[in-house]
Write a structure and sequence with these properties.
This protein is 76% helix and 0% strand. It has 203 residues and is an all-alpha fold. The two termini are 25 Å apart.
Length: 203
């Protein structure tokens, strides 16, 4: 399903997104920064992935996680001194960028926790069939897609702050309702919770 959608999206992008003919001054690509960033992230993910196999307190797990932190420290030192960094560290000095990243990462983390945990809850606790559980989970992407484009246009006109607050409020209501989820609940209640989380991500 994703492949034809991406093909259509690529064709539409080539057709309707305007081209920028203005040439910008080219700087040397920060190859060292890219390698340090890739090494730090890959080693960190590797440590988390094999944590259950090696053991949380094993020498392999602790060693690879410490190594990943050291590599990311080297990456920070390199990027702070490079004239054309792979990832500009100076951006994080801006409070709007810093807190914006915290809010966006926190919201994505919470949303994906719900998307990962809810199918198991519906299948193993509520005893729904995989097909029915999938239909229930549709409440999240449908609501996200329904308000995403509209919220983007309205935020361009009225500013992003009101819609960020609306989105966080919707997510808060969704997760607050999730505190009271019980296996005897009717499916409508779970659908409403997922819908609020989807609305929050859309805004």
């Amino acid at each position: 399903l994703h492949v034809p959608v991406m093909v259509v999206a690529s064709i539409l992008a080539l057709r309707f997104i305007p081209k920028h003919n203005k040439m910008k001054e080219r700087n040397a690509f920060d190859t060292v920064g890219m390698l340090l960033f890739t090494g730090g992230i890959v080693s960190f993910i590797l440590g988390l992935s094999f944590m259950n196999t090696w053991g949380i307190a094993s020498a392999k797990t602790i060693g690879i996680l410490i190594a990943s932190l050291f590599v990311m420290y080297l990456f920070w030192l390199w990027e702070s001194r490079h004239p054309a960094p792979f990832l500009s560290i100076r951006l994080f000095r801006s409070s709007s960028v810093f807190f914006g990243l915290i809010i966006s990462n926190s919201s994505f983390l919470l949303a994906n926790l719900a998307l990962v945990a809810m199918p198991f809850y519906l299948s193993h606790i509520v005893q729904l069939s995989p097909a029915t559980a999938g239909y229930v989970m549709l409440a999240y992407p449908v609501c996200l897609a329904a308000v995403g484009t509209l919220a983007g246009r309205l935020s361009d006109r009225y500013g992003s702050v009101p819609f960020v607050m609306i989105g966080l409020g919707c997510m808060g209501l969704g997760y607050f309702g999730g505190l009271f989820v019980h296996h005897d609940w009717v499916l409508v209640g779970i659908v409403v919770i997922l819908a609020f989380i989807g609305l929050g991500m859309g805004f």
